[in-house]
Amino acid sequence: MFAALSLPATALAGEQVLEFKLVTKPMDLKVTEVANVEGQTVMSGKMFGVAFFKDGRVAVKDFVHSADLIKGSGPIYGYSTYTFDDGSSITARYAGAIKDGRAKGEYTILSGTGAYANATGTGGFESAQAGFKGAGLYDGRFIVKTP
Fold first, then answer.
1. Residue 130 counted as domain residue
2. In CATH, what number is assigned to the domain containing residue 55?
C-alpha cells in the first residue's frame, strides 16, 4: 500500500486538474498588415514558453500561433506541446480571442506521452497583468483525463 501512495499524481489514471502560470515569447512570428483594411493584421509563427505548475513542476511549451486582429482584437488559434522534465508531454489545440488587450481561450487536449499517454481533456487560459516587454504572462489550467 505504501508504494501506491508514493507514486506521483501524474502516474495515476483518471482526471487531474493542472493549474499553471505561463510566460510566452514569440520566436519566429510573422505579422502582416492587410492592404486597404485599416487596423487589420494577420500573424502566424512559432512561439516558446515556460509553464510553472502549482504542484512545483515546470514544463517548456513549444507552439504555433495564429491571429486575425482588427485594431488589436480578434480570434487566436494554435497548437501547443508542453514537455515536462521527465519527458512526459501534453499536446493541445487552443482557440480564443484577444479583446481590449487581454487574451482568453480554451484548450482541447489532443494527445500526450509518458505519464500523459493517450490523454484527452480540456482547459483554458487567460492573460494576466505583467510588465514584460515582448513576452506575455498567462494563468492556465488543464483538466487531463488519462486511461
1. yes
2. 2.40.350.10
Among 82, 76, 41, smallest CA distance to 60 is for: 82
Does residue 85 form part of some domain? yes
Number of domains observed in the structure of the chain: 1
Residue partners of 93: CB distance under 8 A and separation at least 6? 77, 78, 79, 80, 107, 108, 110
- Is pTM beyond 0.70? Reply is yes
Phi-psi group of 2: left, alpha or beta (phi > 0 → left; psi -120 to 50 → alpha; rest → beta): alpha
- pLDDT for 103 equals 96
Beta bridge partners of 141: 19, 124
Residue 1, pLDDT score: 37
| Mean per-residue pLDDT of the chain | 91
Range of the domain at 74: 13-146
